[in-house]
Amino acid sequence: MASTWRKVLRQTSVLLSPTRPSLRQIHEPLPKIPVRVSWLLIELITYVDTHCTINETLYREQGRSTDASELLELVQHHASNTSAPISERLSAFSSAVLTTVIVQILHTYEPLLSYTVSQELLERGRTSTIEAIATALPKVRSTSRQVLRVLLGHLAHVASCLDVRKPVKHLSRLVGLHVVRPSEDPVSLNQRDAVKARIVLSNALIAGAASWPYDCQASMPTAKELLFLLKLQWPEDAIASEDHLLRCLNKYGAVESIECDLGSFKAKVCLRLRSSKPLNRTVLKLHAKARIYVVYAALQHEGDASPELRLSQGITETLRLLDDILADAPSNAFETHKLHESHVHAMTKVLEAEVRASQELLRLHKAQYDAQAKHWEVELTTAKLLRLEAEKLNTDLRQELHSTRSELACHLAMLSHLRRDSATLHERAVVAEAQTETLTREKSELEAQVLSLKDVAAKAQIRVESYKHQVSNQEDEPTDVKPPARSTDALANVKGEMSRQLQRQIDTARAAIAAMAAKDPATQHLSHQEETLSMLLGQLEQTQVAQEAGADAALSGARRKLQQLYTPPVDLGEDRVDAWTLELRRTLATAQRGVGRPASNADSLNAAKESLRRFQATLHRVGP
């Protein structure tokens, strides 16, 4: 069953992989890792090995993408702009972020075991793997060997600390596959046999990390391509941009790295050329077609060969280049010399202009600084004046606040005093209302008394007529008898007493109004109370006048009725007249002696009622 499954997997892999060269996608090889990036990668690996906790999730757990991007940008910045170490800033990142960036850097550039070395080791298979690795390491660049030394030692240390089954194989799947890559074709890399072979090679590398010859001398290049370091120059209008320069160089070989200074019209290029294309022909073609001049050329070997070998090769290539240049017509040399002279003259002018511009810029900066300093002094003086003005305003505001608080205290005291006065006036108004109600009740009582007196006067009319008749018949009796007490006198006394009481109330109210007027009416409520009291006093005066008029009218009516009683209109019988005369005499005698009033009530109304009762009893006794 297992063999059938493997067979189906192989057939599927074959069907999925393109067979014809015309249909196979071409994957360009990645650039070699720069020296500065390799040293930064060594710092990252060393920091993870010494400062991070080693566990099963190391290199398996992915860090946050934002932190990983930030750390990768930091590495690129240090690789291009500064030579300072990066280990001081690594404490801000987690171990997962550090391992993620290490794997990304390994996958971004050419593998540490180059494509040719990886392909050679994979083609040998499992046979004599240790000897094959020891033989192939001298073909690797010295910088890549140093990175391999640190990386493989770190992976061996991690494998010795992990408590998992087959830790070396575990790390080979996570990291070792990025070290051994024969190409960048994902189809060929992900085939089962290729993955197994890469894992086996990675296991061997990690297992023998301490025994590999990292410091061996590099071997002579046997490849079909050579790497040259070229220093280039060109006229001002020959190259427009770095992309233009790359397009011109890619026609003759593969550009490994480039450092371009467009302002100085210079560049430093690592160019990989086939051995079938001599360097002298490439130099002549660059000069003739693109007007690019090679001022320096040196052979660079991938394995960093010995200095003597590199020097001899450089001298040989330089002599060949000079021979080819001298073999050309003299006009080319003259043109080259003239071009160099014009270039030097132009560069001199540019430098002089830059110096003048720098001086002018310095002068402008100095003038700007002086103007800014004066402006700052003016602003400082203005700020000081504003501070003094603010302090003065603060003092004035404090004084105003103190005076306002004093006025507020006075107003509060005045308000409390006015409230007390208002309470007093309210009490007086209540007393005045009570007095008004008392006067109203007294008025009602007086009206009732007036009505009673009217009734008494009506009933006494008959008795008065009899008195008049008796008086007319008694001519022999003395006429100096005092008239009896009348009810009108009692009414007059009551009227006088009421007038005196009303006058006293009016005087009291006027005194209260005068006292109120003497004070300062500060609020609308006090004014309203004063108007109310004035209205009450007016009503009291009107009531007094009305009561006096009513009393006068009642007295006038009583007098008229008494006058009618004293002058009877008709004649009475002799017997009745005699009886009335006798009763009148008795009444007069009683009046002369004084009417006996009850001790409990000495009012004239009771006396009148008693007289009326006696008169009626006399009438009943006499009878018709």
Please tell me about this protein's structure.
The chain has helices at 2-16, 35-51, 65-81, 95-108, 115-124, 129-136, 142-161, 167-179, 186-189, 192-207, 242-250, 279-289, 307-327, 330-459, 461-473, 487-518, 524-566, 574-593, 604-622; strands spanning 225-233, 254-261, 266-274, 293-300. It has 624 residues and is mainly α. Among the domains are: 28-207, Orthogonal Bundle (Phosphatidylinositol 3-kinase, Chain A); 225-328, Alpha-Beta Plaits (2-Layer Sandwich). The chain has a four-stranded antiparallel sheet with strand order 2-3-1-4. Helix 3 (65-81) crosses helix 4, helix 14 (330-459) runs parallel beside helix 17 (524-566) and helix 14 (330-459) packs parallel to helix 19 (604-622). The longest helix is centred in the middle third of the chain and has 130 residues, at 330-459. The model is unreliable at 11-26, 301-323, 325-331 and 594-602 (pLDDT under 50). Residues 387-519 form a coiled coil. This is Rho-GAP domain-containing protein. Keywords: Coiled coil. InterPro entries: Rho_GTPase_activation_prot, RhoGAP_dom. Residues 21-213 form the Rho-GAP domain.
